[in-house]
Amino acid sequence: MLLSLRQKIISVNLTLLLIVTIAAGLITTFEVQNFFEERVFEQLKTHMSETEFFISTLNLSDDITESEYKSLIAFADAASIRLTLIDSLGVVIFDSWVKKDSLRYLENHLTRPEVQMALHHQYGTNERLSATTGVRLLYAARAVTPKAFENAGNLAQSKFIRAAIPIIAIEEVLSEIRWTVFVGGAFALLIIAIVSLLLSKRLTDPIRKLARVAEEVKKGNLDAHFEHGSDSDINNLAELLDEMVTKLREDVNQMQKLQTMRSQFLGNVSHELRTPIFALQGYLETFLHSTDLDIDKQRTFVEKAFQNSVRLNNLLTDLIDISRIESGEMKMSFRKIMVHDWLEKIVSEYSVKDHKKGVTVHFANRDDKIECYVMGDKERLSQVVLNLVQNAINYNKEYGTVTVGYDVLEDDVRIFVSDTGPGIGDEHLTRIFERFYRVDKERSRMVGGTGLGLAIVKHICEAHRTRVKVESKLGIGTTFSFLMKKK
Ligand SMILES: Nc1ncnc2c1ncn2[C@@H]1O[C@H](COP(=O)(O)OP(=O)(O)OP(=O)(O)O)[C@@H](O)[C@H]1O
Ligand SMILES: [Mg+2]
Q1: Is there an atom of ligand 1 within 6 Å of 421 CB?
Q2: pLDDT tens sequence across 274-284
Q3: pTM
Q4: What's residue 175's pLDDT?
Q5: Which atom of ligand 1 is nearest to the CA of 391?
Q6: Least distant ligand from the CA of 314
Q7: What is the fold of 5-174?
Q8: In Å, what is the CA distance from 23 to each residue of 28, 32, 260?
Q9: How far apart, in Å, are the Cα atoms of 478 and each of 318, 320, 402, 408?
Q10: What class has domain 232-326?
């Protein structure tokens, strides 16, 4: 069975206390008993010496009289002891608890343990039930000093003095002590029980609180808050749990956002794919079903179908690029690039092209070549510039210009593409890097745009640890630029 923390604390405390109480009770009783018995034997010794002295002062006649016997009894009673005189053969000559004429009925006392001990060691003690009186007694016996009893009548035959005292007196004190220890122990037990109950409550309450909140979190309530208690350990734990839940909340939010983005993206993709496919199907269908088309019309239809298949292909290429960049599958191979030569080559390819709108593409640094290198994946960076130039041409005015160039700064090279187009409104500026985002859908579609170009640009720049910056003035033009570290 698993015990709760509280049950453990209480049971451990109580068990310990119980052991201590019992041990203390046993030890004190034992010690007190020893102490008392020693004291009693000391007393008995004194009484025996007093008896010896008393008898030596009596000057008794040969056969001691009844009244002499009684005064001896009175002497013993005054000391509250039982006094016995025994001769060398074990015959009792005097006993303060026995009448003079009953003495002869007494057993021989030589075999009594205390007498035996006195016989061999001068002094002996014993504790037992008295056969003569039926009372539990503590006995002490000693051999008589021969000179002491010179004038003691027939008592002069005494070989041993024995003094005894009932044990009841000691027993009473002992049981009183035992009772005190028991009551004290029970009282301490009660107090400790209460204290450990309170203490364990204090200790386990905050833990239970934490557990309740954790239960809430488990059920999915990520707004649950772990309360901080007064205990530093539990505080730490609560703080950690709070941080954990915050992190979890952020992760879940992020995941939900990604999830929405993903499904939006999927919706957009299918929509974008459907447009050229429908167009393609339409042209081919008309071409197939009409019998009276002249050769020029037929050619136009096939051309249109071809354009849409190209568009479809471009779209797929872009999509594949994006997903490869996002999944980290696209590996960049970084090399040193000579900025001037690289940009000049890109621009030269455009310059020779004949644009429908008559847009011209300039290279700003044509006449002042600077030896300057950056590190990057040349093919990917070319893709960035080409995308920007393509946009600058597509969204330009008729006979407008596009300028491509670079500025060499202290640590970086700034690469830019600017145009003389209509510009981009502030409300669109932050969004044009989103996938499929187009400022003017119709116009974009006309120029064959899918809205993925700038998203790809953004990703490639991020992979090069840089950001595309865009500045635009409505009616004047737009400049896209990014910084690369000089090498
Ligand atoms: N130089 C520019 N001047 C004005 N608007 C621009 C410029 N470049 C981009 N835009 C706007 O930003 C939108 C997003 O550009 P992006 O390159 O991502 O897509 P696209 O050109 O429409 O399609 P794609 O490049 O994938 O063929 C464009 O549709 C256009 O509306
Ligand atoms: Mg574009």
Answers
A1: yes
A2: 988 999 999 99
A3: 0.56
A4: 85
A5: 8
A6: 1
A7: Beta-Lactamase (3.30.450)
A8: 9, 14, 73
A9: 23, 28, 10, 21
A10: mainly alpha
